[in-house]
Amino acid sequence: MNSSKLRRSLVCWLVLSPIVVTALFPFAVMLITALKPNTEVLTPTWWPSRVAWENFQTMWTATNFGNALRNSLYVSVLATLGSLIVSIPAAYALTRFDFKGREFYRQFLLVTQMLSPIVLVVGLFRLMVALGVIDNINAVTVVYAAFNIAFSVWMLQSYFATIPLDLEEAAWMEGAGRARTLVKVFLPLAVPAIVVTAIFTFINAWNEFVIALTLLRSQDSYTLPIQIFSLVSGRYTVEWHHVMAATFAATVPVAIAFAWLQRYLVRGLALGAVK
Q1: Mean predicted confidence (pLDDT) in 2-17
Q2: 203 and 229 in contact (C-beta within 8 Å)?
C-alpha cells in the first residue's frame, strides 16, 4: 500500500513539475535580476558574481516604493470591503428571494464580466473630471469597488445556494429575525465563499493598471502598478535591478495572502462549484 502511494506521488510530481517550473520561472528571473549588481544586469549570465541585497534598500528610496505600497494596500483593502458590503446582501437576496426579473439580473451580472474596464475608461474619465476627483485615490477606491461588485455577487450567490434553507427556518422558529439569522447562522457558514471572493477582489484591485493610469496624475497618489510602470516609461536609462526588485516585492503581499488563506480558497472553490 505504501509503495503504491509512493508511486502515485512520484507520477503526480512528474506530471506537475513542468507546470511548477513554468509558473515559478518568471519569479526566479525577477529575483536573480534584482540581486545582480547594476553592472551585471544586462550580461548574459544567470548567477551574479555577488548577491546585491542592497538593491532592495536602494529601490525602496529611489522609486518611492513605500508610498506606492501604502496606496495600493489602502485602495485594495477598502475596495474589497466596499465590494463585500454591497455584494453579500445582494447575493443573499438573489438566493433566498423570488422576485420578478431575478434570472434576468443573474444573466446581466454574467454579461457585465465580458466587458473590459478599458471600454468604459473614456466615459469614466469624463465623469471623474466633471466631479472634480481626478488624482483622488478615494475615487479610484470607489471605482474599484464598483467594478468588482458584479463579480462578487456572482461568486457569492452560487455558494449561498448550497446552504440549506432549513437552518434559517429553524432559527426563525426560535424567534430570530431575518437580519439576526443572516449574521448568526448564514454568514458563518458562508465564510469560505466570502474569503475566496475577498481574495479575488483584492487581487483585481491590487493588479489593476488602466483605471489607475487614467485617473491618477501625481506620483504621491500612484499605486504599485503605476509606480513600477513609471520606472520604465519615458526614461533614457532604465534601472532594471530596481524594476525587478520592485516587481518582486509587489508580488509578496498577494503570495502571503494566498498562502495564509489557501484552505478557504480550496474549500470555497470546491463547494461553490456544486449547486
Answers
A1: 78
A2: no
pLDDT in tens, 29-69: 888 888 888 877 777 778 888 888 888 888 888 888 889 99
Residue range 167-211, pLDDT digits in tens: 777 878 777 777 778 788 788 888 888 888 888 899 889 989 989
Full set of structural domains in the chain with CATH: 64-274 (1.10.3720.10)
- Asked whether 88 and 163 are in contact (CB, 8 A), the reply is no
Q: What is the pTM of this model?
A: 0.82
Give the C-alpha separation, 181 to 135, whole Å. Answer: 42
**Is residue 41 within a helix (H) or strand (E), and if so which, with residue range?**
none
- CA 65 – CA 74 distance, rounded (Å): 14
Q: For residues 69 and 89, is the Cβ–Cβ distance under 8 A?
A: no
Assess contact for 83 and 141: CB atoms under 8 A: no
- Give the type of residue at 178: R
For residue range 215-242, what is the model confidence (pLDDT) as tens digits? 998 888 999 999 888 888 766 677 888 8
- Residues sharing a CB contact under 8 Å with residue 67, sequence separation 6 or more, in sequence order: 219, 220, 222
Cell numbers describing residue 2: 505504501
With beta carbons less than 8 A apart as the criterion, state whether 73 and 253 touch: yes
Q: Indicate the burial class of 245 (C-beta count within 10 angstroms; 0-12, 13-18, 19 or more).
A: buried
End-to-end CA distance of the chain: 35
Half-sphere exposure of 175 (CA within 13 A, CB side): 0
Amino acid at 220: D
Q: By the 8 A CB rule, do 184 and 171 touch?
A: yes
Q: Are the C-beta atoms of residues 152 and 201 closer than 8 Å to each other? A: yes
